[in-house]
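Quick one, T. Sequence first:
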Amino acid sequence: MNEGEQAQTISPTLEVDWHKKGDILERTVGRLFSIPENIMSATPLAFLDDSKRENIGALEEKYKDIPFQGQVKVYLNHSSFFDQMKRLFSSERRTSILYRGTLGLLETVGLTLWGKLARLNAYNAATESVQIYHPEKAIAISKIESAKIFSDTEHPTLLAIAQWLPFVNTVIAWKSRKEALKRLGNDSIEEQNKANKILSSRVGSDIGRDIAAYIGGVGLGQIILSAASLPWLGALAGYISARNRNPELNKITTSKASAEQT
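Structure tokens:
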């Protein structure tokens, strides 16, 4: 393994695989297609950056003593289609082979291929893997918390099927955000504040997408308008709510930033 790659076992049930750079699609088209998602995450310039090697240490600090059912693997910046297919049909997976051969296969192909084209940050329940491109560790932690939700359930196949229904993924994202902020509780106030804004914006955009999916039967123009606008409005609402939810955090952060400028 060269200096642009690093594989590390954080715990017996959690591994991290970091690549300095992704493939050509991830580095070109993927960056452009990821711009809207990064704007809705309150990190408009994140499309220019990648997940840093230092994030491995941050994840090890947070999860070295946290057990998972199954074997979870986190891919930072790149994962190969072959690796994902191999994980999908491994006997180590907790979801049923019937699910993995049908909906799980669709999920894996979609998240792997479209994931490269849009640099998606996501957890795949069928392969028990997390794909991360975003440079902020809060995104990685929130997706690992999604993996923890699936790890903690006694019925992973039922939960995996349920996530195809509207609002289920949003509920998972909301719970993951909540647990991620707890996991970041020992970080600096500035880091917690930044994570809160990023994760709240993402949950807001998820809510907007789900609402847009339900505004049907009112004409194609209305559907297109809803699908185009509601995720953005949801992200904005999430960002504003994050700023208002803990005014002391924002007050301290703003005061410190002002002091540094002077």
